[in-house]
Amino acid sequence: MSAAVAAAKAEFAARSGLLTGTLSLRAADGVESSSLPALLGAFHRLCPGVTLHLVEGASAGLGRPR
Asked: Taking the mean position of all CA atoms in its chain, how far away is CA 30?
């Protein structure tokens, strides 16, 4: 078995236990200048199988479910 094939098999085996799905978040307007982008980036690196969906809106409406 070639090194490339072995590496590909090892990567797929490692990824088989990854979380998958969608994480939807609501945040107040203006979060683009906060630490949220860095936190979401770190989350995505740890859980690449999870799709992140961020909705920004006025903070007054954040407590109401959609």
From this structure: 20
